[in-house]
Design brief:
The protein is built from two helices and eight strands. By secondary structure, the chain is α/β, with parallel strands linked by helices. The chain has a single domain, classed as 2,3-Dihydroxybiphenyl 1,2-Dioxygenase, domain 1, CATH 3.10.180. Strands 1-4-3-2 form a four-stranded mixed β-sheet, with helices on one face. Strands 5-8-7-6 form a four-stranded mixed β-sheet. It holds the Pfam family Glyoxalase. It comes from Luteolibacter luteus.
Length: 125
Amino acid sequence: MKRRYDHIDLRVRSLAEARPFYEALLPVLGFRREDSSEKWLEFEFEGEGVTDYFAVTESATHQPGESRIAFWAESAAEVDRVGDLLRRIGARNIEGPGYEAEHYYAVFFEDPCGNRFELCHRSRN
């Protein structure tokens, strides 16, 4: 399958506040810590060669928008497992997990800085 994106370069208002959240969440989603520094968190997807990565950096004036990033889950059980983790690591405004439609199981949440995310499992009819 072709890659669907290269990377996500996310801004947060406080890297110190967001760092523990992403250090707990991203490895569970298949990313591994790769090349982080004081100013950047960079997590690369586990795999061969060039892979997707997720980077987080601070912008003191950052204001979260209405956009949402959705991660793929292999199963509804994985959505449930991550939903439990979200409650433990400080996610905000958690909705679900649950069915949004007959074949769409998801949990919606925000990071500590208000950025919006989703983890979903879609199955065919």
